[in-house]
Amino acid sequence: MEPSTYPEPDVRLARLADAVSLPPAWPPTDEFLDDLTKRTGLRTHDLLLVADLPVPATAWLFDETAGASSSLLSRSLVLPPSGRQLLRTRARSMTAPADTLTPRQPRPYEQYPPGFGSLLLRMLALRNLNWSGAAKVMCLMSGVCKAASTIGAVGRGAKELDAEMLDGFAATLGIPVAVLGELTGVRPSAEPRELAPKVVDTASLIWEVRQLTWDQEGALTEYAEVLGGK
Fold first, then answer.
1. Distance CA 117, CA 53 (A)
2. Contact criterion met (CB below 8 Å) for 150 and 87
3. Closest alpha carbon to 66 in 214, 206, 216
4. What residues in the chain have per-residue pLDDT under 50?
């Protein structure tokens, strides 16, 4: 079981700041959050979750039939750096047609108790990843291959957030394991290593495609295939 003690928001942000040698600030200013995103690799919306601050409603608009697919990510991971940059640039240029995204409605089983497991699953939900999608992405990105139910159990606090799962979440989010370990208090499995550039770039791609439609993601996967053939 996840420890019953879950630090207050100011402590959680201070842990992240300490991980990247940034003086803590509470309440957090926009400048502080900007600095923290640059140094940790987390997104501003992730930090709002960490700080228990409101996340804009528009951040929860998705085509829930989409979400980063295994086909797209597997192609991204084998592209050279220039190809990954072109793919992310194309993703950023795409906008979902009007009225194709709807507010995400958490399922009854996604009602999580306070804890680091639930925090991480809400970060993945910001990326339009449900339990099943998160399990597939985590396996591709980190080699940590778990059942969707196991991912959900971490969110519910029924499964411990251990060193192996820490590796999986860090790769999926595209942030250093050491940073995530400092936040959660979970000791990494080994001497923390830098994430491979292809993992960092592909994690960024996951963020870029979060609010695309299923059709748009399919078109992006086709573009990735073209890039891979060059």
1. 18
2. no
3. 214
4. 1-4
d(CA 138, CA 123): 13
Compute the distance between CA of residue 30 and CA of residue 16 in angstroms, rounded to an integer: 15
* pTM for the model: 0.94
User: Is the peptide bond prior to 176 cis by the omega test (within 30 degrees of 0)?
Assistant: no
Sequence-ordered list of residues with C-beta below 8 angstroms from that of 220, at least 6 positions apart, any chain: 72, 87, 90, 91, 94, 209, 212
Whether the CB-CB separation of 61 and 104 falls below 8 Å is answered with: yes
102, β-bridge pairs: 62
How many residues are recorded in the chain? 230
**How distant is the alpha carbon of residue 89 from its chain centre?**
19
168-192 confidence digits (pLDDT tens)? 999 999 999 999 999 999 988 777 6
Question: What SS3 string covers the chain?
Answer: CCCCCCCCHHHHHHHHHHHCCCCCCCCCCHHHHHHHHHHHCCCHHHHHHHCCCCCCHHHHEECCCCCCCHHHHHHHHHCCHHHHHHHHHHHHHCCCCCCCCEECCCCHHHCCCCCHHHHHHHHHHCCCCCHHHHHHHHHHHHCCCCCHHHHHHHHHCCCCCCHHHHHHHHHHHCCCHHHHHHHHCCCCCCCCCCCCHHHHHHHHHHHHCCCCCHHHHHHHHHHHHHHHCC
77 Cβ contact list (under 8 Å, min separation 6): 140, 141, 198, 199, 202
